[in-house]
Write a structure and sequence with these properties.
- By secondary structure, this protein is α/β, with parallel strands linked by helices.
- Among the domains are: 16-51, no CATH class; 83-332, Type I PLP-dependent aspartate aminotransferase-like (Major domain) (Aspartate Aminotransferase, domain 2), CATH 3.40.640.
- The protein contains 15 helices and 14 strands.
- The chain has helices at 18-27, 83-93, 104-116, 129-144, 171-174, 205-212, 238-249, 268-273, 299-302, 304-307, 320-332, 335-358, 385-388, 393-404, 424-444, and strands at residues 50-54, 57-60, 65-68, 122-126, 148-152, 197-200, 217-222, 252-257, 279-282, 293-297, 363-367, 371-376, 408-409, 415-417.
- The strands form three sheets. Strands 4-10-9-8-7-5-6 form a seven-stranded mixed β-sheet, with helices on both faces.
- Strand 11 and strand 12 form a beta hairpin.
- Helix 2 packs antiparallel against helix 11 (320-332), helix 3 (104-116) runs parallel beside helix 11 and helix 6 (205-212) packs parallel to helix 7.
């Protein structure tokens, strides 16, 4: 079994991923591209195939032990295979899998969500963030009688046609910074879905207020902290101003907390920043790896699913095994856990800053202890997507590839997710690996 490599390993001791690459090629006979999500394609040096996870580690088919900062692309705030969750799931399996009816465990999970989340007067469960974002937009259109929605450059709200716009556009295609042009995200996507979409720059209150003043916007949907790309903080007063402007114009404010929910705080970004939206959506950390999502918000809006003619459904909504995982996860999210994760993440951020400074590499390390972002080529933390677009992405991919060969797995888009299982020793090993990776790329002239 390989272990995390030292900071300056010999070429022979760098980890290899040949068996993963071979397995992906073989599996491509049956699975398109050998993966079941486009976001797992084109990972350097190859998409990986795993055998198991434990705490902060993943073990792949090549026998490599990797420190994991993907964390399932965000959900695994308790790390891999936490005992309390595993025990809860095993117990529920003995009682049944799916009933097309209600269970006590889903009511317990819902009660916990409503207790923890400031905006949650009522809630419903779903199976994915993409799905519950659609439910929130449908509610907003029904409640206001309007059709247009504002979203922001760089914010991601799922892969459906009406929201997969300007999530990571080229600056050339995106037009003026103060009046972005909606940029389509996929071939086969209906261009007409942009007719009721307005794309704006995030963190600019004056531009948003001016557009809302026209009185035709059903909803403003945003990440309250821009964590899909950049881990960018809202500017001082921005969220408060958005809340006031939406209230004034009768616009529904939706916080997409699929990433930030139950990660930045027990009550999500809305608790951390003290601003309550009308509706919120959640996923990822809500069930530590099980396919659970949720929409929550004002009772009058949520009750439109009951008496307002708004349809919301799903065969697997509140599936009992997933609900057992949800309850176990939410009960584990204590103040002590958030303090521990924040401390580990801060240690990692400060360590990276020291490495970049020592090797004279221009980089921004910014965000939150629970999730932060590394942007090569930026001198200051990004304020919006246009700032972030200036990062040196090819160099960063080279950096994450070098880290992989040293036993550290990090997302190529720059995000670093931290769990309760990333101990100080694991963090120090990661910093050592970063030092070795940066040293290698400096020698090669990549950085």
């Amino acid at each position: 079994m390989s272990v995390t490599s030292p900071a300056n390993p010999s070429a022979s001791s760098l980890l290899s991923f040949d068996k993963s690459a071979e397995t992906i090629r073989t599996n491509s006979q049956w699975i398109a591209g050998g993966v079941n999500s486009n976001f797992r394609l084109n990972i350097a040096p190859t998409p990986l195939v795993f055998e198991r996870g434990e705490g902060p580690y993943l073990f792949d088919v090549d026998g490599n032990k990797l420190i994991d900062y993907y964390l399932g692309m965000g959900p695994m705030i308790l790390g891999h295979k936490p005992k309390a969750l595993v025990d809860a799931v095993k117990s529920q399996i003995d009682s049944g899998i799916l009933f097309a009816g209600q269970t006590a465990i889903e009511a317990e999970a819902a009660r916990l969500v409503c207790q923890m989340v400031p905006s949650a007067e009522r809630m419903r469960f779903g199976s994915s963030g993409s799905e519950v974002d659609q439910a929130a937009l449908r509610l907003a259109r029904a409640a206001t009688g309007r059709t247009k929605v504002i979203k922001f450059e760089g914010h991601y709200h799922g892969w459906f046609d009406n929201v997969l716009w300007s999530t990571a556009p080229s600056v050339d295609a995106a037009g003026p910074a103060d009046a972005p042009v909606p940029v389509i995200g996929s071939k086969g996507q209906l261009p007409s879905t942009a007719d009721d979409l307005v794309v704006l720059p995030w963190n600019d209150l004056a531009i948003l207020e001016a557009r809302l003043s026209q009185g035709d916007i059903a909803a403003v949907i945003m990440e309250a902290a821009m964590c899909n790309q950049g881990s960018i903080h809202p500017a001082a007063g921005y969220l408060e101003g958005v809340r006031e402007a939406c209230t004034k114009t009768g616009t529904i404010l939706i916080f997409d907390e699929v990433i930030t929910g139950f990660r930045l705080a027990a009550g999500g970004a809305q608790e951390k920043f003290g601003v309550t939206p009308d509706l919120s959506t959640f996923g990822k950390a809500i069930a530590n790896g099980f396919p659970v999502a949720a929409i929550a918000g004002r009772a009058d809006l949520m009750d439109m699913f009951v008496s307002g003619g708004v349809v919301h459904g799903g065969t697997y909504n509140a599936q009992p095994i997933a609900m057992a995982a949800t309850v176990a996860t939410l009960k584990s999210l204590t103040p002590d856990l958030y303090e521990r994760v924040g401390k580990s993440g801060t240690q990692l951020m400060e360590g990276f800053k020291a490495v970049f400074a020592r090797h004279d590499v221009k980089a921004s390390v910014a965000g939150f202890g629970q999730v932060f972002h590394v942007a090569l080529g930026l001198e200051q933390p990004a304020r919006n997507y246009r700032d972030l677009a200036r990062m040196n992405r090819p160099a960063y991919v080279a950096l994450t590839t070098a880290l992989m060969h040293r036993g550290v797995r990090a997302l190529e888009r720059g995000a670093w997710f931290v769990s309760s299982e990333h101990s100080s020793d694991v963090i120090e090993a990661t910093i050592d690996a970063m030092d070795g990776a940066v040293r290698e790329l400096k020698t090669k002239g990549t950085l």
